[in-house]
């Protein structure tokens, strides 16, 4: 007879897996390590997450929820001006990448680690890891495009691309730079200043 999972078992497994996946990469972390560190039996883990891809997708969904909440807060604080909202979005990323434990964007990290996982619409039910990662990046870019569309600029597509390159650059730089690199703060500040100039805020 299958054991009934204790309350919080799923959250404990997911918390341990999320930490390990983020710190070490998805490919490097096996299910046995997660079982050991979560202190749960193999059967209980597979009861909640039948395959590793289910656990990875749940990890990315959790990261997606946290990013959505962070974006909601900064946009709320920025008021109704789309220029200020765009600057706030870049500034929030600049703040995020300065965190001592920051190891890159979870979604970009996954897609770089598994380039063969296309996450194409229709290839699965939309909950596979690559589908979650692609959806997050598409939604973030769409949020930028939505605000740029409210500005009176000659080439909105170009402005979206410029702002997206700033965001990508912030994530990329912080992923490989030493946390003690004292040039990281000025680089993040420069990104925010550039965004402000581009949108005319």
Contiguous runs where pLDDT drops below 50 for at least 5 residues: 121-126
> Would you count the extended β strands for me?
0
**CATH architecture descriptor name of the largest domain:** Orthogonal Bundle
Helix and strand pattern: HHHHHHHHH
**Class based on secondary structure composition and strand pairing:** mainly alpha
Number of H/I helices:
9
- Mean pLDDT across every amino acid position: 89
**What is the rounded Rg?**
19 Å
Tell me, what is the CATH class of the largest domain? Answer: Mainly Alpha
How far apart lie the N and C ends? 64 Å
Tell me the layout of helices and strands:
Blueprint (H helix, E strand, L loop, with lengths): L8 H16 L6 H8 L3 H7 L3 H27 L3 H16 L8 H8 L15 H20 L7 H21 L7 H16 L2
Provide a compact summary of the structure.
By secondary structure, the chain is mainly alpha-helical.
């Amino acid at each position: 007879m299958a054991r009934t999972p204790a309350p919080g078992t799923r959250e404990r497994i997911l918390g341990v897996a999320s930490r390990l996946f983020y710190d070490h990469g998805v490919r490097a972390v096996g299910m046995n390590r997660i079982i050991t560190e979560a202190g749960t039996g193999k059967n209980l883990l597979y009861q909640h997450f039948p395959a590793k891809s289910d656990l990875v997708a749940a990890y990315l969904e959790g990261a997606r929820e946290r990013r959505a909440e962070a974006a909601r807060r900064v946009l709320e604080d920025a008021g109704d001006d789309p220029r200020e909202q765009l600057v706030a979005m870049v500034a929030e990323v600049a703040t995020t990448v300065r965190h001592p434990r920051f190891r890159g964007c979870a979604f970009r990290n996954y897609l770089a680690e598994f380039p063969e996982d296309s996450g194409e619409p229709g290839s699965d039910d939309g909950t596979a890891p690559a589908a979650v990662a692609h959806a997050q990046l598409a939604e973030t870019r769409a949020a930028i495009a939505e605000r740029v569309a409210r500005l009176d600029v000659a080439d909105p597509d170009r402005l979206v691309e410029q702002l997206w390159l700033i965001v990508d650059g912030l994530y990329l730089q912080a992923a490989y730079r030493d946390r003690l690199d004292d040039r990281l703060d000025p680089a993040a500040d420069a990104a925010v200043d550039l965004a402000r100039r581009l949108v005319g805020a």
